[in-house]
Write a structure and sequence with these properties.
eight-stranded parallel β-barrel; TIM Barrel; two-stranded antiparallel sheet; alpha/beta
């Protein structure tokens, strides 16, 4: 029997949030506090950067979490690590979620530590043993938090060691065995498709629609014609926007967040890309609305 985990504050669509989102970064706090964010429906924050933060920074964070729906997107759970699961971190995240009424929690389907942190998100081998190992650890996190979490499809740059299955098979097997959600990263699909020579649309269509909880979209850096680095440090290119459009066409509209971690431009420029997400969403909402129905979207 599966554990009875609570789904915190789901929307009527079944997603934890709705519309278009924007990541909250410390260097943009003051600018975001004074700049209208009317086209932002939800925000995302890395809990490790904010746990136990008080004072003026803590007060500023509260101003955002009181106004917007929030998702926590973790950085250091290291779900594929050979080291024991950091259950103290998970409990800290749980307290952070409760304090700020966070709607949902997601992490990377990677590892970043063993005896210490490696300062990078490394790929998990695409093997049956790794599926069982990772799924058990995800279930443990969900049991501690008493809620479902989502795992993000990750970018990677070297062949999977000891590969027994394709990337898409590995992701789907983990999601099914762990009974968890999917954070669908559109840019990571494009990056991996170029770096590892597969069709991004075919990959996209093999993902389980019922497990998508929300999505990321971001920019990247072209190191060479056949090597793309997932930097979150540039504007989103037209090909990635087109892949998001294909995803909405196939799955329907899901919540989508703009990621920008480096070379962060003024907030007004970030909001133009948030508005582009909303525009693509609105077009598909309109296309899927029957005559006489009322259109409702963020």
């Amino acid at each position: 029997m599966k554990p009875d985990r609570k789904n915190l504050n789901p929307t009527t669509s079944g997603y934890p949030v709705s519309g278009a989102g924007l990541g909250l970064r410390r260097e943009k706090l003051d600018e975001m506090l004074v700049h209208p964010l009317d086209n932002v429906n939800f925000m995302e924050v890395a809990p490790e950067n904010w746990i136990n933060i008080g004072g003026s920074l803590g007060k500023k964070l509260h101003q955002f979490t009181e106004k917007f729906d929030f998702i926590c997107h973790g950085l250091s759970l290291s779900i594929g690590s050979p080291a024991p699961l950091d259950e103290n971190l998970v409990r800290d995240i749980g307290r952070f979620i409760n304090t700020h009424q966070i709607k949902y929690y997601s992490e990377h389907l990677t590892y970043c530590s063993d005896n210490g942190h490696l300062y990078d998100l490394l790929p998990i081998p695409f093997t049956e043993a790794a599926v069982h190992y990772v799924a058990e650890r995800i279930r443990r996190v969900q049991d501690i938090l008493q809620q479902e979490i989502a795992m993000e499809n990750a970018s990677y740059y070297t062949p999977s060691p000891g590969k027994e299955m394709e990337e898409i098979e590995f992701i789907n097997a983990v999601l099914e065995e762990a009974d968890c959600g999917l954070l669908l990263d559109i840019n990571n699909i494009y990056v991996n498709a170029v770096n590892h020579h597969y069709d991004p649309i075919d990959f996209l269509k093999q993902l389980p629609a019922g497990r998508i909880r929300y999505a990321h979209i971001a920019g990247h850096y072209n190191e060479a014609d056949d090597l793309i680095i997932d930097t979150h440090g540039a504007d989103i290119i037209d090909t990635v926007w087109a892949l998001l459009d294909k995803a909405y066409a196939h799955f329907g509209v899901f919540p989508t967040l703009l990621e920008r971690d480096f070379n962060i431009p003024p907030v007004a420029q970030l909001l133009t890309e948030v508005e582009q997400i909303r525009s693509v969403q609105a077009r598909w909402h309109h296309a899927n609305t029957l005559p006489g129905e009322q259109e409702i979207y963020g």
